[in-house]
């Protein structure tokens, strides 16, 4: 029950105290030390402070969760973790039978408090933040210590082996530098995380047996230095599991995050496989944080599967060999489950999309060329069911093309897919165009090798299974997109003769119903217009 702490924060806020939750924690820490000198400044009695301290100590995890959802905590850069993600990280450490934990970059102690309450010995490093020190004092737990960085901590160095290292774990959210989250810093994020992880492993490798780190998903597939670091981790046999958080549950709004579970360099296991998983989501009890309506499933059943490496053999989790990952060039679960899945699922009647369809990218109009008279809009693709409708442009037919505009010749049976922004929306082309038409530059076109397969492919991408499979290959740190190489490797069902017949009849029926609905809409509009005219005549 966190009402006493919330009441204290409300009391301080009503007196104009800025960052009231920090002042409240500070007052309770002083109360724990027997210092009531400041409480009188806010008209608070010693008995009230003592009662609030006991209530807060008994419900510290819930109190910190409540603080983490505040705008003030996010504005100060303290809300780097969310309660559900913190619960998942803590459960992984507990399920892994770790009795000691080193925690980095947990400004509001969401992970540290959970581990300490579970009896895990916590050593927390979070320089530059005051809340960890206050929480450790309030908890008054001998097993929870907050370590202040020394002068030499600015330089990486290796820790000597420590007693109990065989059951120690390090938990961190990377990169360790707050604020590198968006805008001009967006492209730096995966490389900053790679650098910090490399330094962290070198520094604490002798002190723990396992690393559980939250990293930006872009670090798992970016090229250059990030790719070299991934290869080093795989070649050394250090990667144990890669877990991708669901869309909408990330700690930073502009980036997708994943969890890397790594072995310590002293317990490497060359030649093994990696447990890869798309973590399940659940509906949040209420809109949380920045409109979060889903959160990651963090129960002990999920974490037990991860630690025990129990793959379900489906699209959500799998054991993938180091060699397969090196061939793919990515550590991102959605890419691995899609790319490797295309090969692994051949015996299940699936094929890679590139084997049944060509992927076409619209081209830019040559400079000085007149704009086409017809276009397909993104809204038209979203509303298409099944066929896209063309929009006639009202511009002068001799108007020059704009720099960002692209064109393509469409053929009957082409599937237009939105590959950037509103990714995954698809529309089917009913008739071939005899001239180039404008297409949004966020779109790609799938042209089936056999026209008869187009209807079945379209219905697959409109189905829940197809939508989920497209979602599995969405990437992008700031703008969601689908890469052509990932789309080509997507595993799709092999189209049978029965599927072709069923798809053709289904689309025919859908199109007839759609036409009938449009006719009814027009008749309804005409009835309304006519009735309004009759009413106007009566009034006059």
UniProtKB/TrEMBL annotation:
A Pfam family matched in the record: N6_Mtase
Coiled-coil blocks: 503-530
CDD domains assigned: RMtype1_S_TRD-CR_like
Name of this protein: DNA methylase adenine-specific domain-containing protein
Keywords for the protein's UniProt record, in alphabetical order: Coiled coil, DNA-binding, Restriction system
Lineage, highest ranks first: Bacteria, Pseudomonadati, Pseudomonadota, Betaproteobacteria, Burkholderiales
Annotated GO biological process: DNA restriction-modification system
Superkingdom: Bacteria
A GO term for molecular function: DNA binding
Organism encoding this protein: Pandoraea anapnoica
Stated family: Belongs to the N(4)/N(6)-methyltransferase family.
InterPro entries: DNA_methylase_A-5, Restrct_endonuc_typeI_TRD_sf, SAM-dependent_MTases_sf, Type-I_RS_S_subunit
Domain DNA methylase adenine-specific intervals: 211-281
């Amino acid at each position: 029950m966190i009402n006493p702490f919330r009441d204290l924060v409300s009391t301080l806020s009503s007196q104009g105290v800025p960052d009231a939750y920090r002042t409240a924690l500070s007052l309770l820490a002083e109360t724990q030390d027997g210092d009531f000198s400041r409480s009188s400044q806010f008209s608070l009695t010693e008995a009230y402070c003592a009662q609030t301290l006991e209530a807060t100590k008994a419900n510290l995890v819930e109190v910190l969760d409540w603080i983490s959802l505040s705008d003030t905590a996010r504005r100060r850069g303290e809300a780097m973790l969310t309660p559900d993600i913190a619960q998942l990280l803590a459960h992984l450490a507990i399920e892994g039978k770790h009795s000691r934990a080193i925690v980095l970059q947990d400004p509001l102690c969401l992970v540290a408090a959970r581990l300490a309450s579970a009896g895990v010995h916590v050593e927390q490093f979070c320089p530059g933040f005051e809340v960890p020190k206050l929480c450790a004092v309030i908890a008054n737990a001998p097993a929870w210590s907050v370590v202040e960085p020394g002068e030499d901590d600015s330089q990486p160095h290796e820790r000597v082996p420590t007693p109990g290292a065989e059951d120690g774990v390090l938990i961190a959210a990377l990169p360790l530098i707050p604020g590198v989250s968006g805008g001009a810093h967006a492209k730096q994020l995966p490389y900053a995380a790679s650098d910090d992880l490399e330094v962290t492993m070198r520094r604490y490798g002798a002190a723990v047996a396992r690393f559980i780190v939250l990293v930006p998903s872009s670090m798992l597939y970016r090229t250059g230095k990030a790719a070299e670091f991934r290869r080093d981790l795989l070649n050394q046999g250090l990667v144990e599991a890669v877990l991708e958080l669901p869309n909408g549950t990330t700690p930073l709004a502009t980036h997708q995050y994943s969890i890397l579970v790594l072995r310590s360099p002293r317990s490497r296991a060359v030649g093994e496989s990696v447990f890869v998983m798309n973590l399940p989501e659940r509906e949040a009890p209420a809109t949380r944080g920045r409109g979060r309506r889903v959160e990651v499933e963090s129960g002990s059943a999920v974490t037990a599967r991860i630690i025990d490496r129990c793959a379900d053999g489906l699209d959500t989790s799998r054991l993938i060999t180091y060699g397969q990952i090196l061939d793919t060039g990515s550590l991102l679960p959605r890419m691995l489950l899609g790319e490797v899945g295309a090969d692994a699922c051949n015996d299940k009647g699936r094929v890679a999309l590139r084997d049944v369809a060509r992927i076409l990218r619209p081209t830019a109009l040559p400079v000085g060329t007149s704009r086409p008279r017809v276009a397909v809009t993104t809204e038209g693709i979203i509303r298409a069911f099944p066929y896209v409708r063309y929009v006639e442009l009202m511009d002068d037919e001799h108007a020059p093309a704009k720099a960002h505009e692209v064109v393509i010749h469409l053929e009957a049976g082409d599937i237009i897919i939105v590959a950037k922004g509103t990714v995954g929306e698809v529309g089917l082309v009913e008739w071939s165009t005899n001239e180039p038409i404008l297409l949004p530059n966020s779109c790609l076109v799938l042209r089936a090798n056999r026209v008869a397969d187009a209807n079945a492919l379209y219905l697959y991408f409109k189905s829940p299974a197809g939508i989920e499979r497209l979602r599995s290959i969405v990437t992008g740190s700031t703008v969601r997109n689908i890469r052509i190489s990932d789309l080509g490797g997507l595993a799709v069902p092999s189209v049978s003769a029965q599927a072709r017949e069923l798809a053709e009849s289904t689309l025919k029926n859908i199109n007839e119903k759609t036409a009938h609905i449009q006719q009814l809409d027009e008749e309804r509009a005409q009835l309304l217009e006519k009735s309004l005219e009759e009413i106007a005549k009566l009034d006059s």
